[in-house]
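Feature request, filed as a ticket because there's no other form

It would be nice if the structure record came with a short human-readable summary line next to the tokens. Right now we just get the raw output. Example of a typical job, pasted below so the devs can see what we mean:
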Amino acid sequence: MSLRQFLATAVQFCHHLTVHHTIEEQHIFPVLATKMPAFKKELELLTQHKQIHRGLDKFEAYLDKCRSGEQDLRMDELKVLMDSFGDVLWQHLDDEVKQLGAENMRKYWTKDEMRRMPM
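Raw output as currently delivered:
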């Protein structure tokens, strides 16, 4: 993979994660929040999104500078930026899987309600 391809892939990751979180926040979390406290505004999962994006925004800005030639890519700098949101990203993934697992979903929703969810 060339440097140009690497940087393009990293920027695509940023965009995809942003779109994913936007869809969750605007369409999915509000439905789930009607019965599930973990998906309510300013609680854990949405707070994690904000923490992730504080680091992700800096990561993407660095990538943009590298792509434009304004700055040379340094892997040690890239790692520091990735590490700034890595822990919360992994925790968020674990927490979402736990919240959306069948056992937990059954506490809040019937099968019929889940079938009718607009997703």
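Something like this underneath would help us a lot:
The chain has a mean pLDDT of 94.
The radius of gyration is 17 Å.
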